[in-house]
Structure formats: C-alpha cells, structure tokens
Amino acid sequence: MEQQTYLKRLGKFRNEKVPLVGSTSSSVRERRAAFDLQDSQQALQCGTTFPLEVFLDVPASVRKRRFLEDVRVGTLVLGKIVNVRLEAGLLIHVLEVVTGQKRFVKDLDLQAVCPRSEFEMVSDHIDCNDEFRPRDIVRAVVFAVDAVQEQLSVSFRRFRLPRESRSLELGLVSEEDAEIISKRAEAEVEVLDGFSHQLKQTAGFSNPHCIDNLLDELGVSSQLSSFLGCIQSIQRRPDDYRDELRRKQSHAWAMETVATGVDHLKLGNIEKAEKHFDHALLIEPNNVEAYVARGALYANENRYENAVKDFQEALRLNPKHKNARKYLAETQTTRGNSCFNKGDLETAVDYYQAALQINPDLESAQSQLQAVETKLELQALRVGAAPSGS
Question: I need a surface site. Which of 139, 181, 187, 365 has the fewest CB within 10 A?
Fold first, then answer.
C-alpha cells in the first residue's frame, strides 16, 4: 500500500516537475496554463460544442480514412500511452485533436508512435520507462502520416511545432488536465441530444456578444450582406434585412392564425377559436386584429372585463381602429344594461358614460343614460318628499 502511494506521489511530481528540469525558461508552466486557458476563454466568448461528426451516423472506418487524408504535419494531438518500449519508444492511442479542425477520433482506434529519438529529453540519463508509464496522457505533434498502415508518427520535440504553436507545451499532461481530457472524451461518446441542444448548453452561447465575437474571430465584417464580391457593393433597402423580413413573416403567420380562429368562432368552436387567437398573439404580440377578435369572443361569452382589456389594448396599438372602438363602446353599453337590470344605477351611469366617451353618437348608450338619469332624479324626489321622522 505504501509502495502504491509512493509511486502515485512520484508520478505526480514527475508530471509537474520534469518539464522544468534543465529548462532555460521559467515560463513552461505559464505556456501550459495559457494553452489550457485558451480553450476555456474561447468557450466563454462564443458557443462551442462537440465536433459535428459526433452527431452524424458515419461509419468509423469512413471517418478514420478521411481523418488520415486530412490530418497535416504539425497538428497537435492528445493521446493515452498504451505501451512503453525501451528501444522503440511509445505506442499511443489518440484521443483528441488539439489544433486545426476539431475531430472526434476517440472511437477510431487510431494509433500513434513516438520514437525514442523524438523525446525532448532534459537529460541523457532519463529512461523512457521512468519518464512515461502506460495510461499517461501526453500531448504531441504529428510529423508523419502513414495512411496505408493507418498510423501517425508523433514527436515531443519543440522544433517540429509550427511557428504559430511554438508557445505550446509538449509531453506529459498534468493529472488534473488529464482527468478533464478523459471526461471530455467520454462525454463525446455519450452525446444523445441534438447538436442545437448541446450548443445551447455551452456558456458562450448565452454570451450576448456571441455573434460579434465569432465575426471578429473569423475576420468577417458585420456590414456585409453576402460573401460574394459582386453583391457586397449593392445597397440593400431596410426591409430586405433579417429583422424586417422576420417581422413580415410573423405578421403574415399571425394574420393567417387569426383568420382560422374567426372561422372557428363562426362555427361555434369557442375553445378552438380562443386558442388560435392566443397563438396569434404569441407569434406577433402587437397584432391588433388578434386583440379585436379575441375581445369579440370574450364579449359574446359575457366575459366583459377581458373583452374591454383586449379592445383597449387594440386601441392603444391603433387608436383609429374602427371595429375596436365600436366593439368597446357596445361592450360598455352592455355592461351598463346589466347593472341597470340589477338596480345598480350609479355603476350603470359610469358604463354608459364610458361608452359615450368612445363613441358620442352611440344612440343605445345615449337613450339608456337618459333613462337611468331620469330614474335617479325620480328617486331623489321621492326621498326629498318623504316625511321626516319625529
């Protein structure tokens, strides 16, 4: 047990300290941290997800062949050591592509060989059996591809890195980073949800500057309407752009939904009609016709308070809408009639007056208001003529 604990502590020390031994620079750890931080920062800047091929039903043999055709010398890969051979070097199972196009390779059984001569040794006396162990995670650079043998040749020597990747660290990966890499590779295999769902789960996708960050990263101008040079110089009208086109589409869809709801209302299908009016307002929240139609439905169902709210909202959006004004005045008159029949004359007066504020020429409201006021005057006279008690 003590031997196992010692070996684990020794392995951790080796992973963290060996790259520093004999190094002429004190920034090895900084370079490694900068490399690992790069992916994290990019993930926060814009939406990132697993490689697209994870979500495609492409046979592994086809993906493996295409990968070997596409991979280039200078590509960085992450892998797990399978075997350590004293003279030959390391046999590595490739887990992940670090630079270039993201690829899902963990299930391809893709092998890489790192010859003994390609170790970045800090001392001639370090044995590869001491420096590397099976199941260690390493980062290496591809320097040869054998598509026939389906094998990569990789190196830990820094001079083989492309110029733009010279700041990156090769060799053993720390235990903490190795654990993250292993979990990430396992997660790719277990992806069951769709591409859109996975994309929306990333922190960067929720970044309000996601689109701007992507445009900046890709070097694309936000002012371009097309990547075709012959079209870029054409000045577009405001209603040709996305937001205006979307607004027009939403309006057309909402109006079609309102028309269907009106058809159901005429047939007496109240529930279906109401659902269509509600849906139209979800599509286009400021659709005046949907408010007017739903208000008419509420009024016919004696749901006067809801009807009045819809008519008032329609008039707020379009103060000159004739039907909205007409239906609101009629609804207020109907509410006044209901109060009149119940003997609540004061409330009836309020509703009739509200109706006449909307439509001063509404005869039914005028006549009813006169009748109520006359009745109130008679009641006042009777109260005044009644003998006072002793």
Answer: 187
At residue 264 the predicted structure's pLDDT band, cuts being 50, 70 and 90, is very high
> Please, what is the average pLDDT of the chain?
77
SS3 sequence of the chain = CHHHHHHHHHHHHHHHHHHHCCCCCCCHHHHHHHHHHHHHHHHHHCCCCCCHHHHCCCCHHHHHHHHHHHCCCCCEEEEEEEEEECCCEEEEEEEEECCCCCCECHHHCCEEEEEHHHCCCCCCCCCHHHHCCCCCEEEEEEEEEECCCCEEEEECCHHHCCHHHCCCCCEECCHHHHHHHHHHHHHHHCCCCCHHHHHHHCHHHHCCCHHHHHHHHHCCCCCCCCCCHHHHCCCCCHHHCHHHHHHHHHHHHHHHHHHHHHHHHHCCCHHHHHHHHHHHHHHCCCCHHHHHHHHHHHHHCCCHHHHHHHHHHHHHHCCCCHHHHHHHHHHHHHHHHHHHHCCCHHHHHHHHHHHHHHCCCCHHHHHHHHHHHHHHHHHHHHHHHCCCCC
Does the pTM surpass 0.85? The reply is no
* pLDDT tens-digit readout, 135-176: 888 889 999 999 888 899 999 888 888 888 777 788 888 777
pLDDT at position 16: 47
Neighbour-count burial for 308-343, b at 16+ CB within 10 Å, e otherwise: bebbebbbeeeeebeebbebbbbbbbbbbbebbeee
pLDDT value of position 26: 35
**Number of neighbours of residue 383 by Cβ within 10 angstroms:** 8
- The residues, any chain, with a CB within 8 Å of residue 294's CB and separated by 6 or more, are 261, 274, 277, 278, 281, 310
Whether 40 has a pLDDT exceeding 60, the answer reads: no
